[in-house]
Amino acid sequence: MRIRIASSYFEMSNAAAKLIAVQVRRKPDSVVGLATGSTPLGTYRELARMHRDEGLDFAEVRTFNLDEYYGLAPDHPQSYRYFMNENFLRHVNINPKNVHIPNGLAKDIEASCVEYEASIRDAGGIDVQLLGIGRDGHIGFNEPGSSLGSRTRLKTLAQETISDNARFFKSLDEVPRFAITMGVGTIFEARHIVLLASGVEKSDAVKLAIEGPVTTEITASALQLHPRVTVFLDEAAAEKLKRKDYYKYVESMRQVVGQGDV
Ligand code: GLP
User: How far is Cα 243 from Cα 189, in angstroms, rounded to an integer?
Assistant: First the structure.
C-alpha cells in the first residue's frame, strides 16, 4: 500500500488525476473504475481540465462505476448516473457506449448484477479503480459485515450511510435504502486501486482501513491484501495514522530515486 499525503484537498485531487492521466496516456483504451461522492469531485474537475487544456483523450476509455442507488431512474438528480454525467462524463470526450453504471431500475436484480460482472470481465478487467471511503469504512456500498469476497449485488444501506447521504436529498425519507454495488471481491480484481479520503471526519475510517486488522467490519481494510493500492489523503484525513511520518519519509525517498509520480 502506498500512502501519499497531500497538503490540501486540491493537491490530493490533482495528484490522483495525474495518476489516472498517466494510465490513460499509456493505454488509451484503459478500463477505469469510477466512484461517486464528494471526495473524487476535485479529481474529476482536474481530469476535465486536462482534457480541455492538454488534450487528454477519453475517446477509447471504458468506465465502470462502483454503485448505483436502487430505485432511482438514471435522470433522477440524486442518481449516480446523473452525478457522473454532471460532474465528469459530459466534460470529456468519452463515448457513452463505453460508460457502465449499475442499473438502479433493474427488474431482475440478480441477472443484472451477473451481467455487470460479465461486462467487466469482457472489457478485460479494470485497470485502475477509484474509491472513496465511507465513515464506517465502506468502499462502494459494501457496508460493515459485507463479505470480503462479495460480488456485485443488492445491498441494504446502513443507517450511518443513509444519514450521511441525506444531505443530498430533500429529506431523510427520500434517501434510498438499497443500492447495487460492486462487491469487495469485484473491486479487489482491479489491477490498481486508488483510494481517496479527505477531511478529519474520515480519519478514523482511514486509520482502521490502513493500520487496523483486515476485517469485514471495515471493508476498506481488505485493500491491505491487494498488491497495488495507492491511497491519497489530505493532512486532515491522515491525522490519526500511527506511521504518518514514515509514509511521508517513504514518499520523499521515492523522489530521490525518481519514483515520485509512478
Ligand atoms: C457513498 C458512496 C461511496 C463513497 C462514500 C463517501 O457511500 N457509495 O463510494 O466513497 O459515499 O462519500 P463522500 O466522498 O461524499 O464522503
Answer: 27
In ligand 1, the atom with minimum distance to the C-alpha of 181 is 8
* Count of beta carbons in the 10 Å neighbourhood of residue 38: 13
Residues 153-183 pLDDT 10s? 999 999 989 998 899 899 999 999 999 999 9
Residue appearing with cell numbers 496516456? 25
Query: Atom 5 in ligand 1: which residue has the minimum CA distance?
Result: 134
What pLDDT, on a 0 to 100 scale, did the predictor assign at position 51? 98
DSSP H or E segment with residue 155: strand 153-156
C-alpha distance from residue 176 to each of 132, 144, 168, 245 (Å): 19, 18, 11, 40
d(CA 245, CA 250): 9
Determine the pLDDT at residue 260. 76
Give the separation between CA 77 and CA 68, rounded to whole angstroms: 12
Contact 164, 172 (CB under 8 A): no
Q: 86 C-alpha vs ligand 1 centroid, how far in Å?
A: 17
pLDDT lower than 70: segments of the chain: 262
Query: How far apart are the two ends of the chain, measured CA to CA in Å?
Result: 13
- Residue 259 is predicted with a pLDDT of 83
CATH class of 2-251: alpha beta
